[in-house]
Design a protein that fits this description.
- It contains 8 helices and 11 strands.
- The protein has 231 residues and is α/β, with parallel strands linked by helices.
- The chain has a domain of 155 residues: Phosphatidylinositol (PI) phosphodiesterase (TIM Barrel, Alpha-Beta Barrel).
- The strands form 2 sheets. Strands 1-2-6-7-8-9-10-11 form an 8-stranded parallel beta barrel, surrounded by 6 helices.
- The protein is globular.
- The chain starts with 7 loop residues before the first strand and ends in an 11-residue tail after the last strand.
Length: 231
């Protein structure tokens, strides 16, 4: 499957309706369900290893006494020994990229604070096609300086001047909440050479509306909604 279709089908944190989010099994399942790309979240350990997890702290019953510990307070060897669910540990971004290979694009949401250097180092020479995005627009501006070859995007949850924000951060992709997407937004981003990726879209009605507007990608928890969508 091409990593650059007309409209990308993006598995939000893998396939969270079937597997624990941000896990290797979930990412593999997303590809089985037809994902062109996966979206994931990253933090960094105390010794600088970029790892894939949504929250900055450990959660889940299996984490036991480690629940509530910050990921950035633990070393990678320590983290590897902690189960977040039965038989599952937090993967490193390197493990995810090794799993995905050339089969799909990996969209990396930078969650951790001031980890742009670690993320740039982890992705710069990756064999997998990668891009980064964040709610922290300053982080993405930093990524433009550190690793200009890695495509960049900005997340949006409230109305704003999306084009101005993209230009200020040297970003390509607008990641608006699906409720913000209308014809004017799509046309304005396309006019400046950018792309629009809507998140997190979990109804067929919204999928059809967004496709009709010409979005470049849809990020979803349920990839089956996108299987027969014309692109």
């Amino acid at each position: 499957m091409s990593p650059h279709p007309a409209m990308e089908r993006i598995g939000h944190r893998g396939a969270p309706r079937e597997f624990l989010e941000n896990t290797l099994s979930g990412f593999e399942r997303a590809l089985e369900l037809g994902a062109d790309a996966i979206e994931l979240d990253v933090h960094a350990t105390a010794d600088g290893v970029v790892v894939v997890h949504h929250d900055p702290v450990l959660d889940g019953e299996s984490a036991g006494a480690w629940v509530g510990r910050r990921i950035d307070s633990l070393t990678w060897p320590e983290l590897q020994g902690i189960e977040i669910a039965r038989g599952l540990t937090i993967p490193s971004i390197a493990q995810v990229l090794d799993l995905i290979g050339a089969r799909a694009t990996v969209y990396v949401e930078i969650k951790g604070r001031e980890i742009h250097h670690q993320v740039a180092d982890a992705l710069r020479d990756a064999p997998t096609h990668c891009a980064v995005h964040s709610f922290d627009h300053d982080t993405i501006a930093w990524m433009a300086r550190l690793a200009p070859s890695i495509p960049r995007g900005l997340l949006f949850e409230e109305p704003c001047d999306v084009v101005a924000a993209l230009l200020a951060a040297s970003a390509r992709d607008a990641w608006p909440n699906w409720r913000l997407v209308d014809r004017a937004l799509v046309d304005s981003v396309h006019a400046m050479g950018g792309r629009v990726i809507a998140w997190t879209v979990n109804s067929r009605e919204e999928v059809e509306r967004l496709v009709s507007l010409g979005v470049d990608g849809i990020c979803t928890d349920e990839l089956r909604l996108l299987r027969d969508v014309p692109v």
